[in-house]
Each structure stands twice: as C-alpha cells, then as structure tokens.
Amino acid sequence: MTPARLLRAVGLAGLLVGLMVHPGEAQTKFNSGQNVQPVFEGWERNADGSFDLVFGYLNRNFQERPHVPLGPNNQFSPGPVDRGQPSYFYNRRQNYVLRVRVPADFGDQDLVWSVTHNGRTDTATGSLLPVWEIDEAVIMANRGMGASGTYVDNHGPNIGLDGAQNQTVSVNGSLTLTVVAADDGIPGPNPESATRRGDRRGRPGPDQQNMVNPRAAVATGLAVTWLQHRGPGQASFAPMMPPLENGRATTTVNFSEPGTYVLRAIADDTVLTSMVDVTVIVEPAS
Fold it and tell me: Which pLDDT does position 135 carry in this prediction?
C-alpha cells in the first residue's frame, strides 16, 4: 500500500467517525440514553478470491452497555439477518469487531448493518469500493502506529481454546476457560513504553476507546483479553486480561442471568490481533 493510499484510508475512517458526532454532542459526555452507531471499517482481500467486509461500532454511551438482540433491532440486509455481529456493545469506539465473508462475485452490491437503540436506528453500509480497501498497514495505523510505523516481518498471534467451543453452566455457578496463545515475538516487549503507559494490571476504564488495549501487551509482547460478544445479561471475567503462563491464559467467568452467550478471547501483540469464540449456555440456577 502506498503512503498516499494509507493516509487516505486512515483519513476516511477518522472522517466517518467525526461526521457521526451530532452538533451539540461533541463537548458532552452521556452515560446512557444514546445510540449505537455501526461503522464500516473497510474490506480485505482473501487468497481464494473472496472478500471480508469489516465492521466495528461506536456506542456513544460512556457507561451504558446495551444488549440489542439479533432481529429487527440488530440485523444485516439483504440476506441472513445474523452475520456474527455482536449483541452486547461495549462503551465508545470498538474497531474491527466483525468480518463478514462475501463471494468473489459480490461486485457492486451493498451489505447494510442496522442497529436500533434508544429510539434511533443507525446503519453502516459495506461495499467493495476501491477507496475502502484495507490491509494490515491500515489496521496498524489505526491502532496508533501512524502511517510510517510498520513491522514487515510481523505475523499475527495464534490463539485457540483449550477445551470445547460449546460449554454449559448454571447461572449460580462459574466457568473456567483457558486459551493457548503464541506469537512470533515481533514487535516484542517494550518495558520503557510499559512504564509510560501502564502495565497489564491497569484495567480499562469506562472512557477506554477500545476494550482491546495494546498497553497490556507492551510489557510482555503478547496479551489476552476476554470480552463478551453476545448474551442477554452480563458476563464478568476474573480477570479480564489473564496473565500468560507457558503460553496459557486462564480466566473464570460468571453470568448475571440465563441465556446463550458468546465470549471472545483476543490475542494482541500490540500490532495485530487474533480471536477465538466460545458459546456458553447458561441454565437457570440449579
């Protein structure tokens, strides 16, 4: 990717978020009562000729984390309503949350994600317009490296579940989850930066721009974060960012109410990320 194209892609992404701020809202923080705005991040090429349309979102609430069930209030169109999108929305801007695979002959079609919350419907339209093509360089720039910062030999981390991808637990019980994660060591630990920015013990606060925060990996080179992707209640992780010991990271999770949850573990080397999901059926109290 040329520097001009990279800057254009990053600039467009920033412009989109800027345009979504309504007059009078820019200087006001709302804890609740605001909308959730889907965001189209761009599209990626796949080796088999298909494409991935990449989406994120902006939850304008600083405290409210709404659950918007899949259906009329949280859907893709045309085609299947469920494209793997979240139903649990963390605060503020969350990047690169969802990749929707489309075929090589997708052409000039559009794919629209719409979310209705607090009486307002917002949409994001994904397409294969050339200006929206992204790659790892764009992702790294949007994660804070800037247009010139690259690690040409870096490969994204690997992560997998140590256990079944489908689990069952009662609402008054707790579930232990373990992932196995590894990385190529690039870019590697940066203790000096960790001292400036805080180590993995610094848990993201309510104003955190993105729940996947590379500061946790700065001191170690690789970090794992557990997030809730779907679910009718709240999943509480202890800890949310478990330490990696011999390539394994273990957390315990409790649930506020019965239902079906999707939990996501993300491996972050401060530059690139990989993820794995686990589905949990939470039954009523035994």
Answer: 80
**Is 122 in the same domain as 190?**
no
CA distance 122 to 182: 38
| 133 and 260 housed in the same domain | no
Provide the pLDDT for residue 89.
Answer: 95
Question: Which of the listed residues 123, 145, 167 is the one where a domain comes to its end?
Answer: 145
Question: Which residue pairs from 29-34 have beta carbons closer than 8 angstroms and sit at least 24 positions apart in sequence?
Answer: 29/62, 30/60, 30/61, 30/62, 31/61, 31/62, 31/63, 31/64, 32/61, 32/63, 32/64, 33/61, 33/64, 33/118, 34/59, 34/60, 34/61, 34/64, 34/118
Give the residue, 203 or 33, on which the prediction is more confident: 33
**Residue whose C-alpha is closest to residue 110's, from 53, 57, 70:** 53
Return the pLDDT at 147. Answer: 46
Query: pLDDT tier at 202 (50, 70, 90 boundaries)?
Result: very low
* Domain region containing 129: 3-145
Identify whether the C-beta of residue 87 lies closer than 8 Å to the C-beta of residue 57. Answer: no
Read off the pTM.
Answer: 0.79
State the CB neighbour count (10 A cutoff) for residue 246. 6
What percentage of the chain has pLDDT greater than the value 90?
Answer: 56
Q: Which residues of 251-264 are buried (b: 16+ CB within 10 A; e: fewer)?
A: bebbbeebbebbbb
pLDDT confidence of residue 30: 83
End-to-end CA distance of the chain: 56
